[in-house]
Amino acid sequence: MSEGRLIALEGVEGAGKTTQAELLTQWLIELGIRFTAAREPGGTEVGEAIREIVQDRPELAVPAETELLLYLGSRAAFVREIVRPAMDRGELVVADRYSMSTFAYQGYGRGLDLDRVRQLDNFATGGLRPDVYLVFDLPAEDGLARQWHGHAGGDRIEREGDAFLRTVRDGYLELALSEPGAHLIDASGDAAAVHRRVREVLMEALPETFSTEGV
Ligand code: Z5A
User: Fold this and answer.
1) Total of domains in the chain
2) Is residue 20 part of a domain?
3) Mean pLDDT, residues 62-72
């Protein structure tokens, strides 16, 4: 059984985090593991309001520092209203993005000082780190192609273009090597194949939670 674990799904847009979060939660249901699933930015009332500003208002001029603080403002509520209470209930929390997104997008992507970003993030999370980061890796162009195939449009960050997203992907590749609990997962191939990789990683990373049954 799981006891208060946090699993965060990360990667460039279109890498398939949301699809994999859904497949993961289906597996958790099969295994009888109690869980809470939520996305960032958002998940809470104030987080969804922040999401609207930061994602859906690309016409607003938002300095990188403001963008950073908005994402962290959402995270502070996310941790206190959703993640901590669920972990205290002994549930496994599946987070679609967490701190590594801020390191990759605002640190590597926007070029903000990574140490400062980490300090501020630590304040927002109260020091809560994921037990496991699943970092889905896909060339930025392939992720964008999946996105545009899936839906039209483009938020503030998608509009930054390929060079920005390549920098973010390179950031993720470095972070996957250095962040505690991080596992790089090849996100190419169909969703079922990627999910099989997720199962393998989780059974190895959290053997007390994920038995070999159900594989
Ligand atoms: N952001 C930030 O800058 N700083 C922060 O601290 C945080 C976030 C927390 C949040 O977007 C944005 O906020 C994000 C980073 C920034 N930047 N942007 N843009 P989000 O997380 O809400 O959404 P997203 O990451 O941009 O996109 P997404 O829709 O969530 O992508 P995804 O979850 O990785 O992929 P998906 O929705 O599962 O799949 C996308 C499409 O591909 C869809 O049509 C699927 O059917 C298809 N798909 C999925 N898997 C496959 C496979 N294996 N093969 C083929 N097609 C597939």
Assistant:
1) 1
2) yes
3) 97
